[in-house]
């Protein structure tokens, strides 16, 4: 009889301990879920105030030091050093740690161009898809990106490659009406949506990969032998 009571007492202690362990695990799980970072989301509207972006490019934060004059870190420029749509866009861009896919119709903003080169220097894998008609215009950043060693592919002049989106670390989408040009940033009524949501990021990534493969230089028809011969003949005739 005594042995049975001891067994029941031990079983009760074991059950109580199990219940406490399960309750503690549930509380820890709730605490961890509560501490998870909320998905990044935002909307930016342009035109943007012209602000200094040196603080961001040097590793500082957006929006530090409002007003004109020398800014954080002793920046000597006379631009405002406050928050702006451009500084927020650049801050999102510079948050990349592993990869950046850019699909842009036109890209001439020197500030955003420097940010992309900085990411490349940090070891972020950067790939750029653009439109062939706009990549060689005055002020285009594409040549500078290529010179820096960044992979760039373009269409074959069959319609416009008119997309305007970026995917950061395969989880943050930046898209909207904005071309990454000084004209659009400073003068146009534009919008940009920032969304960290797999349901929406995934199709943009798939679209980028599809275009990336389609624009493989191995598929460019204007590199055909016949056209190369024609070009060589024109060059010879021009020397005579």
Main sheet properties: 7 strands, mixed
Radius of gyration: 27 Å
Kindly report the spatial arrangement of strands forming the biggest sheet.
1-7-6-5-2-3-4
Write the element-wise H/E pattern from the N-terminal end onward: HEHHEHEHEEEHEHH
CATH architecture of the domain at 41-51 and 80-217: 2-Layer Sandwich
| Strand-pairing-aware structural class | alpha/beta
Into which percent range does the helicity of residues fall? 40-55%
Quickly name the level 1 CATH class of the domain at 41-51 and 80-217.
Alpha Beta
Q: How many E-type strands?
A: 7
Distance between the termini: 119 Å
**General form:** elongated
Enumerate how many helices there are, as a single number: 8
Bin the strand percentage: 15-25%
Instruction: Give the averaged pLDDT, no decimals.
Output: 83
Could you give me the name of the CATH homologous superfamily of the domain at 41-51 and 80-217? Answer: Endonuclease Chain A
Parts with pLDDT < 50 across at least 5 consecutive residues: 61-70
What is the CATH topology classification name of the domain at 41-51 and 80-217? Endonuclease, Chain A
């Amino acid at each position: 009889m005594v042995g049975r009571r001891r067994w029941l007492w031990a079983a009760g202690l074991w059950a109580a301990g199990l219940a406490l362990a399960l309750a503690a695990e549930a509380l820890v799980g709730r605490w961890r879920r509560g501490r998870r970072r909320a998905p990044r989301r935002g909307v930016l509207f342009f035109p943007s105030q012209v602000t200094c972006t040196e603080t961001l490019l040097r590793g500082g934060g957006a929006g530090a030091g409002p007003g004109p004059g020398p800014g954080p870190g002793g920046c000597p420029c006379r631009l405002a050093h406050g928050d702006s749509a451009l500084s927020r866009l650049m801050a999102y861009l510079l948050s990349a740690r592993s990869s950046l896919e850019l699909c842009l119709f036109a890209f001439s903003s020197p500030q955003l161009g420097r940010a992309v080169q900085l990411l490349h220097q940090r070891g972020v894998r950067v790939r750029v898809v653009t439109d062939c008609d706009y990549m060689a215009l005055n002020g285009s950043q594409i040549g500078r990106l290529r010179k820096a060693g960044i992979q760039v592919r373009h269409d074959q002049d069959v319609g416009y490659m008119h997309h305007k989106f970026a995917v950061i670390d395969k989880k943050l989408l930046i898209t909207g009406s904005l071309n990454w040009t000084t004209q659009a940033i400073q003068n146009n009524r534009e919008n940009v949506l920032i969304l960290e949501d797999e349901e929406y990021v995934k199709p943009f990534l798939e679209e980028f990969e599809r275009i990336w493969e389609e624009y493989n230089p191995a598929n460019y028809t204007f590199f055909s032998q016949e056209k190369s011969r024609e070009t060589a003949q024109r060059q010879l005739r021009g020397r005579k």
